[in-house]
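Q: Okay, next protein. This is AI-2E family transporter from Gordonia oryzae. I've checked the sequence twice, so it should be correct. Can you predict the 3D structure?
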Amino acid sequence: MSQPGWALADLDRSSVHPMVRKAAEWSWRLLLILVAIYVVGRLFKQFDEVTVPLALAILLSAFLAPAVDFLNRRRVPRSLAVVIVMFTALGVVAGVLAFVGRAFVNGFPQLTNEVVATVDQTRQWLTNGPLGIDPSQVNHLGNNIIDLMQHNQEKLASGALATATTATELVTGLLLMLFLMIFFLYGGGQIWEFCAQLIPRSSREKVVAAGFAGFATLVAYVRATVVVALVDAVCIGIGLAILRVPLALPLATVIFLFSFIPIVGALISGTLAVIIALVTQGWLTAVIVLAILVGVMQLEGHVLQPFLMGRSVRLHPVAVVLGIGAGIVASGIVGGLLAVPVIAFANTAIRHLCGNPLTEVIKGDGAFEAAPDPPIWDRLPLDPEIGDPDADTDRHAPEPDRENPDPGDASPPDSGRNGSDSDRKRS
């Protein structure tokens, strides 16, 4: 009974071209992977009050885990080491926020006065300058803004209520994040091994090792990102303070926070600093601030990140930009913040699951890196050997010296035949 069924199956497979059959097999597998990724993303967004604190707790645990291990290795009980590190981190964050908040409160009036003065100068230029705009139109602009605010008081009130609700959610998420961090720092490895029991026994050990390798990548990524963000904030903040740009310290704090989103974050925070410098100090100061930003970003990209992150976290810029773009579209700023760590973790874990040894994966051996292509396509339309499988080999082979030809080189048919005869006679 089974033989006719197998015969029909073989007949059906033989009637389909092998290329079509392979494309269909790859297609449904890729569709299943994409559906799984989509479902995970939807679940993450649906339960973001829990998943976002969970993801941030993992990142912050990756940053604080080396400090806990440092104390634990020196015979400090792990529970006490977790308490010491957590309280130290909370104290540093609270002190920085208090200092920045005081600087913002003290510097905001100066910013307001300088913005008002700039607006007045712009208004005078619009009316008395080459544009010659009617003064009544310029003066009505401020009145229109006031009327717009008065006619939308209900929307502003609802927005304030939504802000209060968001603040409540932020406090709840912060407490949940701190709670998770305590247990991740104390026994995160045991939690991961317990979760890995869902994996079949034959693959469980490899999956556990891949998870540890991915977490090692997160440790390197978060540590390097914090150092790079701190260097960016200090250098740019010093430059803003020297140029007497208002709110230099709050702007440096914004630059520090946005630096956790590679490429895009530095662009957004740098644009904000340039705009404030332009509005308050003029175009010359804005150009100087822009030059400082470009210089710091070059230092970050060519010196700090390669030195601090190493090869294990090295990702192609195309993957970084596309990942951040997809994360921002899917989940806003949180998605842009988590996109690169997720890609780095997945890159390391998948490479280990594909058979690369754990030591090579952590060191970054065999990782894909951006490299220049050889010059090929400029000669393609003029190459007479298009389609020849040996054309690529011939293209990369060194060209013969036309002035001093090698006796062993090929020659035209007639001369080659005569030459071979004369050589035969000599021998």
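A: Here is a summary of the prediction. Confidence is low (pLDDT under 50) at residues 407-427. Residues 8 and 214 are 47 Å apart (CA to CA).
Q: Noted. On to the next one.
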